[in-house]
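Section 5: illustrative case.
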């Protein structure tokens, strides 16, 4: 036995993670169900470090020094259960299985308990950064026990992205905490992508800029407070020209967005926690709407096709472009504030001691939502550990307060042009909702009391009350 860490599942993410480990001096045991992938990895990249390939799970486990650390990089769901069960059968007390896939955190909690009963460690670790990140430095959100992290920490910290000399990997909480945080990361990723898409749509169909011109706008934005990986790659996608037709690539791609389900999980979980993540929800629904081709065709046939381009171009184009930038930044702040609210709610529900500053810190590099902006969030939590909402962090005050008119102008212009901006308007509504002195929720309480005697509380007295609506409309204490 000589490998200090093993990787099971050698599709792109798994083999890139294995190579990353080997490049950082680890001796990496390899196993894949079909041995061709294992052989290909060793043939093509065997010179990058020390690999110990096996063609049976027994040999793979035997090639690891104890306590064994086995990282599973297989599909979430049944695939992960199959691998975890098969590996666990061969392990000894004290060994560890790490799930680096996009598992649902509830499954991770269940697997942690099942393996603990067999005296095995199970660690759910969210790995973000796609194929490139897995190879060159991902962001790694680690759950599981403190004891497991003592062994695993040095391994993941050695292969994670580094920002300012600190690794973008940390132990965030017990059992499913790592996968929970990764799930919220993905939800925020969806919201960021949707907001950027809406900004593009406005610049294209309200302002009338070409994809190449919009690429330049995004490149410019990427030098300021919006500086982020997603803005950078958006410019790259927009500047790309289709080889076959010579058309902008953005115009030849079918406008039906796919999704593998992590955004949906985020929203489902937020609904059960009662946390409004409207920006993430709108992003998931916008992808769903885009893919409902039949509905789109039927509505277009019934009402005519709208392209948004028929609306007059704003008089002050640079001013409008700047307004879109401000609206995008303000909406992004709201969507992150909602994401962090959800992290707090999840922590309270599951008994995790999530440190928001640490989460923002390990999202600064490696992951899909990496951005300069996350430094500000880290600082905000460091300076104000009890921060109730990111919206109130002094670093964002100017961006939210100053965006007011621009935000409203942009949403109004989009609405008039028939360009849907569910992300921008949901964010603005969330901000306005939080700022209102009185919300129509009072009326909803009245309606609930009338039809269902659900009771209400008063502004001027403690207690719960009910009006005898069907009788003399006296108020009684409930
Ligand atoms: C990451 C990503 C990744 C996710 C893809 C695709 O952090 O590296 O979040 O885990 O699988 O982004 O997600 P969708 O297919 O749902 O868009």
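Designed sequence:
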């Amino acid at each position: 036995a000589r490998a200090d860490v093993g990787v099971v599942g050698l599709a792109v993410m798994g083999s890139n993670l294995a190579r990353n480990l080997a490049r950082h001096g680890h001796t990496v045991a390899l196993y894949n169900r079909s041995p061709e992938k294992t052989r290909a990895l060793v043939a093509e990249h065997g010179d990058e470090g020390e690999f110990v390939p096996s063609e049976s799970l027994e040999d793979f486990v035997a090639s690891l020094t104890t306590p064994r650390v086995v990282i599973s990089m297989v599909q979430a769901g049944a695939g992960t259960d199959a691998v975890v069960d098969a590996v666990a059968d061969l392990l000894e007390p004290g060994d560890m299985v790490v799930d680096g896939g996009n598992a649902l955190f509830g499954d991770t909690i269940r697997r942690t308990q099942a393996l603990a009963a067999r005296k095995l460690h199970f660690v759910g670790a969210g790995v973000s950064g796609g194929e490139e990140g897995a190879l060159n430095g991902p962001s790694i959100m680690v759950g599981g026990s403190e004891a497991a992290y003592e062994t695993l920490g040095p391994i993941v910290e050695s292969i994670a992205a580094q920002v300012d000399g600190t690794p973008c990997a940390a132990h965030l909480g017990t059992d499913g905490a790592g996968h929970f945080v990764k799930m919220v990361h993905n939800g925020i990723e969806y919201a960021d992508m949707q907001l950027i898409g809406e900004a593009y749509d406005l610049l294209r169909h309200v302002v009338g800029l070409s994809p190449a011109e919009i690429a330049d706008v995004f490149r410019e934005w990427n030098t300021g407070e919006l500086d982020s990986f997603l803005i950078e790659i958006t410019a790259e996608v927009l500047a790309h020209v289709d080889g076959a037709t010579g058309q902008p690539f953005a115009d030849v791609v079918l406008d039906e967005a796919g999704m593998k389900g992590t955004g949906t999980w985020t929203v489902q979980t937020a609904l059960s926690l009662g946390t409004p993540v409207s920006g993430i929800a709108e992003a998931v629904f916008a992808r769903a709407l885009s893919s409902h081709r039949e509905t789109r065709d039927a509505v277009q046939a019934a009402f005519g096709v709208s392209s948004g381009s028929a609306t007059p171009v704003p008089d002050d184009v640079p001013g409008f472009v700047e307004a879109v930038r401000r609206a995008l930044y303000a909406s992004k702040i709201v969507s992150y504030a909602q994401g962090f609210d959800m992290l707090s709610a999840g922590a309270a529900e599951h008994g995790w001691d999530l440190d928001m500053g640490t989460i923002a810190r390990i999202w600064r590099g490696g992951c899909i939502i990496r951005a300069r902006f996350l430094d500000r969030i880290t600082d905000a939590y460091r300076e104000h550990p009890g921060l109730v909402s990111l919206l109130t962090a002094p670093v964002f005050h100017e961006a939210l307060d100053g965006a007011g008119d621009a935000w409203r102008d942009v949403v109004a212009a989009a609405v008039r042009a028939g360009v849907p901006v569910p992300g921008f308007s949901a964010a603005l509504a969330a901000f306005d909702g939080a700022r209102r002195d009185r919300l129509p929720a009072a009326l909803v309480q009245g309606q609930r009391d009338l039809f269902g005697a659900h009771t209400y509380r008063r502004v001027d007295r403690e207690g719960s009350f009910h009006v005898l609506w069907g009788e003399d409309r006296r108020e009684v204490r409930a």
